[in-house]
């Protein structure tokens, strides 16, 4: 091109003898050195040509760089495993990557062109809300968005919407979507499994309690009665005079063994408590606990008094009163250093049960909050039944726990 222009210039210059013409024009003004002008202009033209060539090379480099970075962005946009969409502010899709097309049920990204984002929202009011929120720019992050595929299936996605304002063209809406349907269904499956687990373990505890109750009843009713019958028969044999000494010895042995077996049975029943409380009666359950406690603490005088009808209380009531006695005795053993303890369980008329445990030990200051959970737990149990727990103690003044629980159905 440059060569052609040069040749054309030379031909024109030689055809019209332009140099001679310029010389004839500038000759008369040689005094002003105007004849030097053509060469000067030529140099300037060359300099300008070099300058513009350098500038155009720089521009080419810049364009190449920009194209390369655009290609990178295009790659990131198109090849992303998550869905990317560009749309106008009214939701018309301008560009989509294959992942977004797949997510929304299309074969290729081109099929998405021109469709409206609104059509993919399960809830179009949600789309309206997002669109108006984005009008002022900014972004919306959605940890859970329900989208509708073109085949009607629902996709659970995590999404991000943002607006890119531009000085050159209308602002663009960018939507990023990732499919979490599998994750969401796994989550709900997990929640269901946990719930089922909870129900199962509750049921198994129920079954366990029922089984324990049955076992305790069997032990008490069947084995206890049979042992008693054996013992009574053995006593009759032992005491009848017609029997030989050997028979009487055997009868004595039978009495002894049946006594031992009965002790084992009682031990087993104790292990099955307090679930078996309502089967065996509160009074004897507490009495037995007190008895065991006395055995472990022979230096302490411990009295137990039960008054009134205590056999018709609810299971929850029985367990609460039983636990009260247990915890109070444990506390006295652990903290009180008492020599005397008095426990009473009284049915007051038809509407109330009272429990009192008093000791003459070292007592304690009840004002500060304490770390133990025993007394707190007792209060909770009592209050759950609509009752009251009153704790009185002071250093060197012993301690007294007084509980009153109303019976259900009473005014
Ligand atoms: N009969 C008592 N005599 C003296 N101090 C007691 C008695 N009962 C409870 N306490 C005091 O009250 C605190 C709280 O008791 P509790 O809630 O049963 O917790 P824990 O027995 O686990 O310490 C005990 O640590 C003890 O200092
Ligand atoms: Mg305690």
What's the end-to-end separation, in Å?
Answer: 114 Å
- Runs in which pLDDT lies below 50 for 5 or more consecutive residues are none
CATH class of the domain at 281-411: Alpha Beta
> What is the number of strand segments?
10
Beta content: 15-25%
Average pLDDT metric: 87
Radius of gyration (Å): 50 Å
Q: What fold name stands as the CATH topology of the domain at 281-411?
A: Heat Shock Protein 90
What is the string of SSEs from the N terminus onward?
HHHEEHHEEEHHHHEHEEHEE
Total helix count? 11
Tell me the strand order in the biggest sheet: 2-1-5-4-3
Q: What structural class results from the helix and strand content?
A: alpha+beta
Please name the fourth-level CATH homologous superfamily of the domain at 281-411.
Answer: Histidine kinase-like ATPase, C-terminal domain
Q: Major beta sheet, specifics?
A: 5 strands, antiparallel
What is the architecture of the domain at 281-411 at the second tier of CATH? 2-Layer Sandwich
| Shape assignment | rod-shaped
- Could you tell me which ligands this complex binds, including any ions or cofactors? adenosine-5'-diphosphate, magnesium ion
């Amino acid at each position: 091109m440059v060569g052609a222009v040069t040749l054309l210039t030379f031909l024109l210059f030689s055809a019209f003898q332009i140099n001679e013409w310029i010389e004839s024009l500038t000759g008369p003004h040689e005094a002003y050195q105007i004849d030097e002008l053509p060469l000067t202009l030529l140099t300037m033209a060359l300099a300008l040509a070099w300058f513009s060539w350098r500038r155009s090379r720089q521009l080419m480099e810049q364009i190449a760089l920009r194209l390369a970075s655009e290609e990178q962005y295009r790659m990131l946009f198109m090849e992303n495993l998550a869905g990317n969409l560009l749309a106008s502010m009214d939701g018309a899709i301008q560009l989509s990557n294959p992942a977004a097309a797949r997510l929304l049920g299309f074969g290729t990204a081109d099929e998405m062109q021109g469709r409206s984002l609104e059509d993919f929202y399960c809830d179009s009011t949600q789309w309206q809300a997002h669109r108006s929120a984005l009008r002022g720019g900014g972004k919306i992050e959605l940890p859970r968005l329900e989208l509708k595929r073109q085949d009607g299936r629902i996709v659970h996605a995590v999404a991000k919407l943002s607006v890119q304002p531009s000085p050159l063209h209308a602002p663009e809406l960018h939507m990023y979507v990732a499919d979490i349907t599998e994750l969401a269904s796994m989550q709900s499956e997990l929640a269901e499994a946990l719930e089922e687990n909870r129900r199962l373990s509750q049921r198994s505890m129920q079954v366990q309690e029922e089984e324990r109750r049955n076992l305790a009843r069997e032990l008490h009713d069947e084995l206890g009665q049979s042992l008693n019958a054996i013992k009574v028969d053995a006593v009759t044999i032992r005491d009848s005079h017609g029997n030989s000494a050997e028979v009487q010895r055997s009868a004595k042995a039978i009495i002894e063994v049946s006594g031992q077996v009965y002790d084992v049975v009682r031990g087993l029943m104790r292990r099955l408590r307090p679930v078996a409380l309502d089967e065996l009666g509160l009074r004897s359950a507490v009495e037995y606990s007190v008895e065991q406690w006395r055995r472990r603490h022979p230096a302490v005088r411990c009295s137990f008094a039960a008054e009134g009808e205590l056999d018709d209380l609810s299971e929850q009531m029985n367990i609460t009163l039983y636990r009260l006695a247990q915890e109070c005795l444990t506390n006295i053993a652990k903290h009180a250093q008492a020599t005397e303890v008095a426990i009473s369980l009284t049915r007051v008329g038809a509407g109330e049960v009272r429990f009192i445990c008093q000791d003459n030990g070292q007592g304690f200051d009840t004002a500060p909050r304490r770390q133990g959970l025993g007394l707190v737990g007792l209060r909770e149990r009592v209050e759950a039944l609509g009752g009251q727990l009153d704790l009185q103690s002071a250093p060197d003044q012993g301690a007294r726990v007084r509980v009153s629980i109303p019976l259900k159905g009473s005014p």
